[in-house]
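Issue: copy button drops trailing tokens. Both records pasted manually instead:
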Amino acid sequence: MPRSSLQAPASVVMIRPHHFTPNAATAQDNHFQTSAGSDPTTIARMAHAEVTRAAAALTGAGIRVHLFEDQSTVTPDSVFPNNWFSTHSGGHVAVYPMYSQNRRAERRQDVLDMLKRSYRVQDIIDYSGLEQDDLFLEGTGAMVIDHLERVAYAARSKRTSEILLERFCTHFNYEPIVFDAVDAQGKPIYHTNVLMCIGTDFAMIGLDAIPDAPRRREVAERLRRGERDIVELTHAQIADFAGNAIELQGRDGLVLALSSRALRSLDAAQRAVLERHVALLPLDIPTIEHAGGSVRCMIAGLHLSARSPIPA
């Protein structure tokens, strides 16, 4: 019987975009964005194909993928649904306020309706109205959640309000751990899930991205309290999205979904540590990575109990 884990969801939500493009409105503070270098029609076609292949690969590994279509021309980052909602054991769902105005239209009632229809949802806490107060918390981009140890790690940024983080942690029973994080050029890292990934028995983290040495040690010690192997990532590996991965429950056991670029950036010793705990599942998404996010951003994990059978 394959091992399962509260940390690793067996079902996910993904959004397949029909008009994908890197979002000019988020480029100012997302320094991982790059020019796609092609005409918009080609970029959109390539991104559509990348999501199609990624969803098929996850399905092939035994992960249930709820794939939604986005034909809007005003939601360039819709491929990253983990920023606007998250799910939690016990039937709890959170909906989040988004920093960029053109990302707020990504929130979809049909996704929430599917969750209520297919899974046991007790409540939905909607924080999105706090956008009017300039309070933002972009889901599991802003937070990297340890579901086993009940900790929410968060790097300070324009997209992460400490006030709202505290409120979320009170509502959902997590311990908040906040820190500053910067890239190799000393610029603030926009989302926490770019620099760290927490699995059941391992964690990947760019500790060098935390400039305050005492805080760096505290974060590392808190991660080790869960008796995990720690894989330290370099700034170059963070830039290649090695930290932007997610552990999932596959048919044959735990898998780590990450991009092909991220996997190439890891050295043999790092891969060996990970492969003690998970099967590596690389997804080829070079077009989407121009938008400054990678596999973790594309996947909203469902930490909910399914109704039996799951309705279509």
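Record 2 (pasted manually too):
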Amino acid sequence: MAIGGAMFLSPCLEIEAYFLSAGANGRGWYGIPAVVLVAIIYNVITLSGMLLMVTLGRRGLKRINPHWFEHRENLITGLTLVGLAVFNFFIEL
């Protein structure tokens, strides 16, 4: 029950409908076993997606030359802060 409760309280609203329908009686699905199955499937798909994205991200980062960023880090930081300040100014109007 703790797995189902934790997944139900997750910020992902889409999964809540699956937990509610899996836990309801009908069409051969009954309570806790169905909720556990949905939780396992949800975890496997989520973790697989995360690992795939991290792997692709690492491959992409290997192509970037960090030497360019090291010599321009102050400029990049300054421009980012100025850009965020301008963005915040127009959002607050």
